């Protein structure tokens, strides 16, 4: 335990998860660690039995659990920020109320951050359960080699999402910014942590320390408009920062190409197919879309002309 409070804060956000939240909390309470921790649970005005279940757990474990139930629904991302703002630990864990941890998670991640002071965020691998089929499957992080590298800002920008949100542990030193109204919160959060602190992110190991339930709970719709909004935020916020803006522009170019492919317009689908065969796909697509972006985009929708740096 630190002089000012627990070493680790586990922030759990819930909404109508009566079928899963007990397993979530039990999995945290079962963790064996050599430090003090707290559990902060923020419920977004659930209408099922979730609140009653959480109240019972809070009463039974009042020394560890702080439970807050909002009287009105504030939305998943404001609820996320609320829970994480309440954290007092040196390190903060996020956990959605329908996911759960596996033995060893907290100790492994805390040890990693202790031993690697330049790491801002540490994830771990998670198995996924498809609730519609009941099938459990593994992620592809090992095959992609991502668990064995230091993840820098270029990786974050290029991949948008790295690691499950419920596998994250980070240092509690971030500043809140103007991303509260953004539907996709995870990406700006990770970028702020890594760029502002001039640190890197990583996976703790190739071990699996949690289980994610897909096709239930909060919906993270990754559509074109949302992604464009995210990148516009990033470009506006870091327009004058000393970062490699070509990486951001390249990612936007690929995003636009993906949208053209999705719409399956004959001419532009042919352009995409041609570019996808090029060895220098990223460079070629960037040059094409960057030079023709306004003409192409106006065929589909009205787009601001300041999309690129």
What are the key terms here?
2 domains, 309 residues, single chain, 11 helices, Spore Coat Polysaccharide Biosynthesis Protein SpsA, Chain A, alpha/beta
Description:
The chain is an alpha/beta fold and 309 residues long. It folds into two domains: 8-214, Alpha-Beta Complex (Spore Coat Polysaccharide Biosynthesis Protein SpsA, Chain A); 224-297, no CATH class. It contains eleven helices and nine strands. Strands 1, 2, 3, 4, 5, 6, 7, 8 and 9 form a nine-stranded mixed β-sheet that branches. Strand 1 (8-14), helix 1 and strand 2 form a beta-alpha-beta unit. Helix 8 packs antiparallel against helix 9 and helix 9 crosses helix 11. GO terms for molecular function: hexosyltransferase activity. InterPro entries: Glyco_trans_2-like (IPR001173), Nucleotide-diphossugar_trans (IPR029044). Residues 9-174 form the Glycosyltransferase 2-like domain.
